[in-house]
Write a structure and sequence with these properties.
By secondary structure, the chain is of the alpha/beta class. The protein has 3 helices and 3 strands; from the N terminus they run E-H-H-E-H-E. It has a 3-stranded parallel sheet with strand order 2-1-3.
């Protein structure tokens, strides 16, 4: 990565499948995805994750309402 290259941003929304319940954080899907993108020479910051085990869509929606988001993201997954 070049020093002046802007880092892309990634927001992962979800539940236990998103966070990889029981796995170390670096083994979760969002972190593995970012590592794969970095190997392809795409500059990415660490992913932001809004997810908890057992969340319903209503609980995720409530968490989204309370979260302080960046102005924009390059990728978002649900």
């Amino acid at each position: 990565m070049h020093n002046n290259q802007k880092l892309n941003t990634y927001l992962a929304l979800g539940d236990s499948y998103t966070i990889g319940e029981g796995l170390p954080l670096q083994n979760s899907f969002p972190y593995q995805f970012v590592q794969a993108l970095r190997k392809k020479k795409h500059a990415f910051a660490a992913p932001e994750i809004i997810a908890k085990t057992g969340w319903t869509t209503d609980e995720l929606a409530a968490a989204i309402e309370e979260y302080n988001f960046l102005n924009q993201y390059n990728l978002v997954s649900l």
